[in-house]
Design brief:
There is one protein chain. With 174 residues, the protein is mostly helical. 56% of the residues lie in helices and 5% in strands. The chain is built from seven helices and two strands. The protein has helices at residues 2-23, 32-45, 52-64, 72-79, 88-91, 115-122, 146-173; strands spanning 131-134, 140-143. A hairpin with a 5-residue loop joins strand 1 and strand 2. The N and C termini lie far apart (50 Å).
């Protein structure tokens, strides 16, 4: 029944992910467990398949510079539920999984990553980006400097306000 199906799915997952890790060239700087943990963050962060290697590269760049990952999905995991629009209080949540509070990777995966996210970690994009913020299309804007990132965040907030105002106007017109 269900237990047999779950065991088969887990075995297949392990086979595919293990084979990808073993075949990686060049060999990743991360252990298998750390690559799996980072891939789980990429899985929760990325909406667009083509952005997975870029998001992985941003996190790897931050790890190399000993910067906190500041990954929203890790805070959501620490809270015990997935939500949009984290508050400042959410970012203060005490947890070994909260990468706003703790440097480095969390102690383990925050979800079961797909093969695409794992491959993104094994074959990250060539970029110097250290930051990203969501855009209004389901993708992200990537930045190399905090200054660029601050501008991108302000633009996102402006676009979000415009979208909310448009929805209100359309609702009022009905």
């Amino acid at each position: 029944g269900a237990e047999k199906a779950a065991a088969a799915m887990t075995a297949e997952f392990g086979r595919q992910i293990g084979a990808a890790y073993a075949a990686a060239s060049p060999k990743p700087d991360l252990s298998f467990e750390d690559a799996l943990t980072l891939a789980s963050i990429v899985e929760r962060e990325a909406v667009l398949k083509q952005e997975r290697p870029i998001i992985a590269a941003v996190y790897l760049n931050r790890l190399k510079k000993r910067m906190p990952l500041q990954a929203d999905p890790t805070v959501q995991f620490a809270l015990g539920h997935w939500k949009k629009g984290l508050t400042r209080a959410d970012l203060q949540t005490p947890s070994p999984y909260n990468t706003y509070q703790k440097r480095g990777l969390p102690p383990g995966p925050i979800c079961s990553p797909g093969l695409e996210s794992f491959l993104g970690v094994l074959n990250p994009a060539k970029t110097s980006a250290l930051y990203f913020v969501a855009d209004m299309t389901g993708g992200h804007l990537f930045s190399e400097t905090n200054e660029e990132h601050s501008k991108a965040r302000m633009q996102y907030k402006k676009d979000l306000r415009k979208a909310k105002e448009k929805i209100k106007r359309e609702a009022a017109a009905r």
